[in-house]
Amino acid sequence: MNEASTFFIIAGESSGDRLGAALMQGLKSEHGGAINFVGVGGPLMIDQGLDSIFAMDELSVMGIAEVLPKMRQLLRRIKETANSIESINPTALITIDSPDFCFRVAKRAKTRLPTLRVIHYVAPSVWAWRPKRAAKMARFVNHVLTLLPFEPPYMEAEGMSCDFVGHPITTEKQATDAQAIEFRVEMGMASDAQLLTLLPGSRASEVTRLGPVFREVVERLRCDYPDLKVIIPSVASRVDLIKKIFADVDVTILDPTSLPSKDSEDRKRACYKTSDVALAASGTVSLELAAAETPMVIAYDMHWFTAFIKRRMVRVSTATLVNLLTDTNVVPEFLLEECTAENIYHSVKNLLESAEARDAQLAVSAKAMEALGKGGDTSGNRAAKSVLKFLNNN
Asked: Which of 168, 263, 335, 374 is deepest in the core (most CB within 10 A)?
């Protein structure tokens, strides 16, 4: 594909921004001609040359009850984005995760531009809940890129072409032992001091719900481990909220705006590498922790109405990707009504004290990374090759 191409790419949250940036880098490497990127994305995609028509952070909401107050604004952005796609008529529309927004945009765009080729990156979890979504998305999506190896058959059964392209976490640079030691020095920590990392999510709704629970866990743990160091790596847009929730609690908040983006990512990975345990919101971060060989406890809560609906649709026994990929329940998870400080406290304490429990997690983490494609080409390049192959054949 040597002619000039314009890709309209949409990502709605930080994990999608990372995927989009890696894909863009891969496309620039594999394309062989002039290439332009327009759409919606975060700082990583903008660094790769994306002209973002509005701030990605506006889309970082999740859950029925959480979305409703912002529905008018989201509908306006859906219309604005679809209008932009129609005016540009890009080589392809690539939507990344965030199906509630992306699929509405894609459906509108496809109606106006019937020959538009639509590619969706990150298959919706039809194997977990709402299986009919695959058939619905097939009406306006032509090609799918999946992160999980068992997903292509679900997409192909509905008539879409689909490739498993692996997960970018498998080839992302991890912190070295030297960087981990340097991080402890920077934080004023002794080499044998115990470190708990808190990751209450990137969405405001997640931090608001999980933050107070995580705070109570810290307060309980401090009764047993008065010298326990607690660090919270935060996305820039949530620093103030985290400071408010953890006011008067001895925690260190890593503000990414205090360092260049690359150095901030390195510091975050060094934090993972040297942590004894991480307590994290359910999501992609569990794979980041697995790649860093960090034992973890996973938690999640949401508005009662959203939980009520989802509880009746879920078809799997675990929401943690490390568990799903290895067909185990080794990583403790506490979801919805089980997401209490009491439950979480005991699991975190067990990991702080039990080498056997930590070793069991390291073993399943290694298996999860292998299942996601560790050892091969970068997922960004694999995704780019899949996109270009699809476009050349269609």
From this structure: 168
